[in-house]
Each structure stands twice: as C-alpha cells, then as structure tokens.
Amino acid sequence: RLETVRGFAKGASIEGIKDIVAVASGKGGVGKSTTAVNLAVALAKSCKLRVGLLDADIYGPSIPTMMKVSGKPEVNEDLKMIPIRSHGVDCMSIGFLVGKDAPIVWRGPMVMSALEKLTRGVSWGELDILVVDMPPGTGDAQLSISQRLQLSGALIVSTPQDVALVDARRGANMFRKVEVPILGLIENMSCFKCPSCGEKSYIFGSGGARKTADEMDMEFLGEIPLEMEIGSCSDEGSPVVISAPDSIVSKAYCDVANKV
Ligand code: ADP
C-alpha cells in the first residue's frame, strides 16, 4: 500500500526515512502499542526492511518494556540521540529520557518540544520505515504529529467493541482532516480460543470492525485474536513475532506487515 500513498501528506519528512507510518487508536488499552511493536519487528524480520520504532505515546510509553530496552541513548557529534536497537529495530522512546515510574505531567508546549526532540533530534540513519506508536485519542499531540511529520499513512487499531470503534472512527476522521492516507483498520482481541476445548468466544462482539472499515472506506487489514501469549511476551520484552514465530498470531502480524 505504501507505494501508492507515499508523499500525499503535508508535513515535513525526516532525512533518510522513506516512510513514516503512524499506528493509532481512538481509545487506550486496545492494543495499539502491542500492534506497533509486533508490526515493526515483523517488518524488520519477515519483510527484511530497515525499521525504526518511535514511542510517541508520551503519557504512557510502553516500548521500553515491550522491546526490553532501557538506559539513556548516546548522543553523536551533532548532538543527536542514537536510537537503541532491539530485535532488529531502532527504538526511541520518551521512556528513555524520564524515570521508569516518573509521571509525565507536562503541558502542551513541553509535549510538543519532547516530540520534536524524539523525531528530528534523533540520528535515525537510513530507514525504510519508521513506525510511530501514537498517543491514544485525537488531542493536541496527535494532531501535531500528523501535521508536522510527513506521514505516509496511518493504521488504526481497534477492538471489535462498539465503544472502541466509535473512537476509532474519530481517529480515522482526524487523519482524513489533515490529509494523511489511512492504510487500514486492524481488529485486535477479535476472539478468544479456549485452550481446553478449542471453542471460540467473541468476547467483544464480532464483525463490527470489518463493518466499520467498509462504512469508512478503509481496508480491513486483519484480525489478531486475544491470546495470552501476546500479553506475556510483551511483558517479557520479547514480542510474540520473535518468541513464537510459528504461532497463528505471529502469522497474523506478518500478514498485516506484508499488506502495508
Ligand atoms: P494500547 O497501546 O492501546 O494502550 P497495549 O498495546 O498497551 O494497548 O495493550 C494493552 C494490554 O493488552 C497489554 O497488557 C497487552 O499486553 C495486552 N494485549 C494487547 N493485545 C493483546 C492480544 N491480542 N491478546 C492478549 N493481550 C493483548
């Protein structure tokens, strides 16, 4: 998809980076960061691309835990921060710059300046794709990122629940307003397969995300089931695409990566 949409958005590009892709959600807790991480690793591992991962979820950075990266990034001679590499992906997160349990109680201008540092103050080198884990919702920070960076496209993550899909629509409409192409909708936590009897339960409903994608004229990129392994691998800092490469969920992430 990126081949066809690249260059439409208005913001400024980052030197050396071919495509910047935002992973967004209307609501928090729907699996946006988990999707961003597994997608980034799948793009590096299965699509053999040079990939960066930017944790722009300024108030709740998850990338340090999910990618098992910590410490302060080194700075080069141009005073640019050098991303920290993990699982084949170059990572940068606001979490590297503040204490692990420190609350980030910043007002708008500080958030903007932090985001500027995390994007243009970083020595990204040559990348095929920079995956941006966006903050949830459609506030100031989200709008600024979408306007200041030339995003090649945005991916929207939602659970099948109506309450999440309503916000996913808002998120999609925000990108449309600022003329960022939407690459598609990913349904996370689509169903749960009982490990004992194998029966599938559609805990958050079924079919809603596909219908929303159709109604909003977005591509439906795939379903990621609710799977204990996804959560435990994230907590251990070893994304499921790495820990269980032959699992169904891993294949689902690689499928999405290939479509992008
Ligand atoms: P968000 O970035 O939208 O706030 P996260 O990616 O942090 O959401 O996910 C919220 C929680 O749900 C995390 O504990 C994560 O491990 C878990 N999670 C996300 N997707 C799945 C899934 N498909 N199956 C099981 N757990 C998941």
Automatic annotation (TrEMBL):
GO terms for molecular function: 4 iron, 4 sulfur cluster binding; ATP binding; ATP-dependent FeS chaperone activity; metal ion binding. Its cofactor is [4Fe-4S] cluster. Gene3D superfamilies: P-loop containing nucleotide triphosphate hydrolases. One of its GO terms (biological process) is iron-sulfur cluster assembly. InterPro entries: Mrp/NBP35_ATP-bd, NUBPL-like, P-loop_NTPase, YlxH/NBP35. The keyword Transmembrane does not apply. This is Nucleotide-binding protein-like.
